Amino acid sequence: MSIVLLLVCLTLLAHASTFSARPVMHDASQPTRWRSMKNMTEGAGAGSATCRTGNPIDDCWRCDPDWETNRKVLADCGIGFGRGAIGGRDGEFYVVTTEEDDPREPRQGMLRHAVIQSEPLWIIFERDMSITLKEELMMNSYKTIDGRGFNIEMANGPCITIQGVTNIIIHGIYIHDCVQGGNAVVTDGPQHYELRGISDGDGISIFGARDVWIDHCTLSHCHDGLIDIVSGSTAITVSNNYMFRHNEVMLMGHSDDYVADKKMQVTIAFNYFGEGLVQRMPRCRHGYFHVVNNVYTGWEMYAIGGSANPTINSQGNVPGDEEWKSWNWRSEGDLLLNGARFIASGNATAATYAKASSMVARPASLLTSTPAVGAGALDGEGADDTDTVVFLLNGRDGLGSSG
C-alpha cells in the first residue's frame, strides 16, 4: 500500500515583501553589531502588528527596515531542533566577489575560499551571482551563507556538503541541477585538502553534522536528494524552503542498520513542497522528527515514509505501509484533504513524543483563511521572480491529494 500523507497547514506567511538588490554597506573587515528583535513590539518597524505574519522566523527579522545593517539578527531567529545554530554570527563579514571556483587552490573572493576558513564568518555577496562549482563545496564550522539582497544561484555542478562540522546557516540560495563530483582533490580547510570519492549529487548533504539551519532556500532537480541528513547528524531545522520538480526529496537517516541515527532530531517546518515531487518529504529512519506546518501540493508515490522505527510527530503530515504499525506515529491537528488519511501507531508515551517536539504548531484551520504563503528564496534574495514562492492556496488543484 503506498504511503499517503495528509496535507499540512502552513501559517500566516502571507507577508512576502521584496528587498532591493543594493550592495551591503559594510566594511567586510569589521564585524557588524547585531541585536535580537524578538521583544520589539512597538512602532511601525520591527515587531509591529502591521508587519507580523505569524511566521516566527520572518517576524523576527523581516520587519526591520535596516535588516541589511542588522543582518546577523537572523542567527537569533531560529526555531525547532536547529535553533542553536549560530553560523558565523560571532565572526566578521566575508564578501564573495567572484563566481569563479577552484577546488584545489581557492582564492580570496571565492565562495569556496570563504567557507573553508577556520574562524567564524558571515558570508554575503557583492552582486547577483550564478555559481557553478567544479567539485562539492566542503564547509567548515561556524559559517553563514546569506544570500539576502541579491539573486544567488548554485547550479549545474556539485553543490553543498556539510560534513563533520557544526553551526551552519544557509539562507536565501537557489540550488538546482546539482550533479555528482569526486575522484578529485578538494580543499576543506585553510591548509588542508583531500582526495574525495564520488559525491551523491545532493543539493545539500548533511553528514555527521549538528546545529544546522537551512532556511528560505529554493531547491529542485538534483541528481540524488534535495536535502539529505544522515550519519548521526542532529539538531537540524529545515524551514521556509520551496522544493519542486524532484524525485527523492529528503532522506533522514543513513540506513536501517546505522543505529547512530537514533539520536537524530530534525524539525521540518513551514516548507512548501511544490509541483513535480514524487517521494521522501521526508523519508525517516531511527530518530525523532517533528514535521509541522508544511504545505504539500501533492505527490506521485508518497509524502512521509520511513523505516527502522522512527518517532514522528506529525502536526501536519502522514504515512501508510504495513511497517509503520511499529513506529511511534501520531497526528495532531492535521487537516486531511482530498483523500489523505492517517492511522496512528506505536505505544509511545508523552515523554517519547516530547523528544520529537520542537515548536508550537499553528492550527491547520488557518490554511483555509490564509490567502498566500511565502517560502523559498525571497524576491531579491536568491531566486528571480519566477522562482520566488508566493502561491495562492485557495482553489489550487492537487492540495493534499493522495497520488
UniProtKB/TrEMBL annotation:
UniProt-recorded name of the protein: Pectate lyase
One Pfam family per UniProt: Pectate_lyase_4
Keywords, sorted A to Z: Calcium, Lyase, Metal-binding, Signal
Cofactor(s) needed for function: Ca(2+)
Origin organism lineage: Eukaryota, Viridiplantae, Streptophyta, Embryophyta, Tracheophyta
Residue ranges occupied by any Pectate lyase domain in the UniProt entry: 128-325
Enzyme class at the top of the EC tree: lyase
Stretches of the chain forming a coiled coil according to its record: none
Catalytic reaction annotation: Eliminative cleavage of (1->4)-alpha-D-galacturonan to give oligosaccharides with 4-deoxy-alpha-D-galact-4-enuronosyl groups at their non-reducing ends
EC identifiers of the protein: 4.2.2.2
